Amino acid sequence: MERWLVQVPFRVYFGWVSVALIANITVVLVDRGWQRLGLSEVFWTVAMLLAATFVGLLVLASRRDAAYAAVVAWALGGIAFRHLASAPPLPTVGWVAVAGAIAITLAIGAMMSKKERLRVAG
């Protein structure tokens, strides 16, 4: 009971805080007039999406925290929808976000599948 009422909500919250941290870093850099090292906004957006995907996969692999990783996948899915459905669409950003969401979702599935195989075998 403690797991579902305490641990999982904190993991979900931590996932959203992590996603917000990445977004807020971007906002601060833009506000400060950062010149992006001469690289495009799309490049940096893709870099942030890849960072979020990496963090989600890292937490999933190291902590086996599906709740945290699912939040990151959900956020990436929302970003993908926004950028693929906007006018004009930003397909590079959208498809990188889709790829990140799919990678995390597949990793969660693989982890859960492995856990189920271990439970049945044990």
Instruction: Please outline the major beta sheet.
Output: none
List the helices and strands in order.
Answer: HHHH
Query: DSSP helix count?
Result: 4
Strand content: under 5%
- Low-confidence stretches are none
Number of strands: 0
How big is the Rg? Answer: 16 Å
Helix content: over 70%
The termini sit apart by: 24 Å
The rough form would be described as globular
Summing up helix and strand content along with how strands pair, one would put the structural category as mainly alpha
Mean pLDDT: 92
Description:
The protein is mostly helical and 122 residues long. It is built from 4 helices and no strands. The chain has helices at 2-31, 41-63, 66-85, 91-121. The longest helix has 31 residues, at 91-121. It is globular, with a radius of gyration of 16 Å. The mean pLDDT is 92.
Looking at this protein, list some descriptive labels.
122 residues, single chain, mainly alpha
Short structural description:
The protein is an all-alpha fold and 122 residues long. The protein is 85% helix and 0% strand. α1 (2-31) packs antiparallel against α2.
What are the SSEs and their pairings?
Elements lengths: L1 H30 L9 H23 L2 H20 L5 H31 L1
